[in-house]
Specification:
181 residues; 6-stranded parallel beta sheet; 8 helices; elongated; alpha/beta
Length: 181
């Protein structure tokens, strides 16, 4: 009986207190960050890239289909993971600039990669996703094998024995199931 009275008093006091707080104050605002909000961007100046790079969290710029080395350099200063999955091909200079990025780098739109681009990307000091590649030459595979962190090539469809042997040496790689040991 006493427990029931105490519970009723606590409930009543709580309701009265809640009723005294304006409704606006009781509403908790959820963050409305749309992580895909930058995918509509098709071109960037160096200044725009530098401004975007200052944003917190994941930066997704999947609408970009080309970038200059200077824009890549500015984007590489971003503090969180960087996704530029709209790029189909990049130059060694762009790859070298992006490799300076200090967090996860997603370039899942790349459909081909030269040994020079692979060597530049291998210098990247965090996880690297290249899941758009359907095949890779043994020379590019050798170059990527120098990458010291997680490497995802989960989109490969064909893989020569030489390329497979090179990639199998990588200690932290994700390959499609048909190419795993």
């Amino acid at each position: 009986m006493r427990l029931g009275i105490v519970a009723a008093l606590i409930l009543c006091c709580g309701l009265v207190e809640a009723a005294q707080v304006p409704k606006k104050s009781r509403t908790v605002k959820k963050p409305t960050v749309d992580l895909t909000q930058h995918d509509a961007i098709k071109k960037l100046t160096v200044e725009q890239a530098a401004s975007l790079a200052k944003q917190e969290g994941r930066l997704m710029l999947n609408g970009l289909t080309t970038i200059s080395p200077k824009v890549a350099e500015a984007l590489a200063t971003h503090d969180g993971s960087l996704q530029i999955n709209g790029l189909k091909r990049i130059t060694p200079d762009v790859a070298a600039a992006l490799a300076k990025h200090e967090s996860r780098l997603f370039l899942n739109g790349l459909i081909e990669i030269s040994p020079e681009v692979a060597a530049a990307l291998a210098e990247h000091d965090d996880g690297l996703w290249l899941n758009g590649l359907k095949n890779i030459t043994p020379e590019a595979a050798d170059a990527l094998n120098e990458h010291k962190h997680f490497l995802s090539l989960d989109g490969l469809v064909t893989l020569s024995d030489d390329a497979k042997a090179a990639l199998w040496e990588h200690p932290n790689i994700l390959l499609p199931i048909q190419f795993r040991r």
